[in-house]
Amino acid sequence: MYRYIKGTVEEIGLDYVVIESFGIGYKINTSSNTIYNIKKGQSVKLYTRLIVKEDDMSICGFLTEEELSMFELLNSVSKIGPKLALGILSFAPVKQLGGFILSGDINSISKAPGVGKKTAERIVLELKDKIDKNNVEYEISLFSNETIQIDEAVEALIALGYSPKEAKNAADIVRKDSKNTEDLIKKALTYLMK
């Protein structure tokens, strides 16, 4: 029904935003990745999907068409509803999540909130062949050990008070020059303190 909604960000919650467009405030459920990239008062365009249930109607929206495509793919997996799909998208950026699926990295996917090993296996099984057909660019993590190091470093930086976006960005920038997780954390901290 709605392809996108364009308007001003009036409110930001933990898992939703309110966008005012032509005098109407739309409450739009979204991922933390989208929330981290918008500010109150900013004019934005969110790509949306209307969710209709027997007892509820809601809108899910995303800053990029790639994130919307991944949401739709996740939502197509049996036993994964909109809420769980949003939780998975909040756990990892679209490119990284696509990499986990294409490489069959069940351990990484099962770390998402509400996702156990069986659900992670179902995601890989049902989406592995569908990923490339959606014109989305993915970074395939060839070294799962490197992914684990980055995840651990990001968690440590968040524990030190940095936002998930700042922590992930810093870890990605310094990862090539780092020998291990401890080295990665030190270099990321140095980068963040500049």
From TrEMBL:
GO CC field: cytoplasm; Holliday junction helicase complex; Holliday junction resolvase complex
Q: Which GO terms describe its biological process?
A: DNA recombination; DNA repair
- Cellular localization per UniProt: Cytoplasm
Q: Which GO terms describe its molecular function?
A: ATP binding; four-way junction DNA binding; four-way junction helicase activity
Keyword list (alphabetical) reads: ATP-binding, Cytoplasm, DNA damage, DNA recombination, DNA repair, DNA-binding, Helicase, Hydrolase, Nucleotide-binding
Q: Which InterPro entries match?
A: DNA_helicase_Holl-junc_RuvA_I, Hlx-hairpin-Hlx_DNA-bd_motif, NA-bd_OB-fold, RuvA, RuvA_2-like, RuvA_C, RuvA_C_sf
- Region (Domain III) residue ranges read 146-194
The record's annotation in SMART domains points to: HhH1 (SM00278)
Q: Which Pfam families match?
A: HHH_5, RuvA_C, RuvA_N
Q: What is its main location?
A: cytoplasm
Report the superkingdom from the record. Bacteria
Helix-hairpin-helix DNA-binding motif class domain: residues covered = 72-91, 107-126
The family this protein is said to belong to: Belongs to the RuvA family.
What role does it play?
The RuvA-RuvB-RuvC complex processes Holliday junction (HJ) DNA during genetic recombination and DNA repair, while the RuvA-RuvB complex plays an important role in the rescue of blocked DNA replication forks via replication fork reversal (RFR). RuvA specifically binds to HJ cruciform DNA, conferring on it an open structure. The RuvB hexamer acts as an ATP-dependent pump, pulling dsDNA into and through the RuvAB complex. HJ branch migration allows RuvC to scan DNA until it finds its consensus sequence, where it cleaves and resolves the cruciform DNA.
- What is its quaternary makeup? Homotetramer. Forms an RuvA(8)-RuvB(12)-Holliday junction (HJ) complex. HJ DNA is sandwiched between 2 RuvA tetramers; dsDNA enters through RuvA and exits via RuvB. An RuvB hexamer assembles on each DNA strand where it exits the tetramer. Each RuvB hexamer is contacted by two RuvA subunits (via domain III) on 2 adjacent RuvB subunits; this complex drives branch migration. In the full resolvosome a probable DNA-RuvA(4)-RuvB(12)-RuvC(2) complex forms which resolves the HJ.
Give the domain section of the comments.
Has three domains with a flexible linker between the domains II and III and assumes an 'L' shape. Domain III is highly mobile and contacts RuvB.
**Protein name per its UniProtKB record:** Holliday junction branch migration complex subunit RuvA
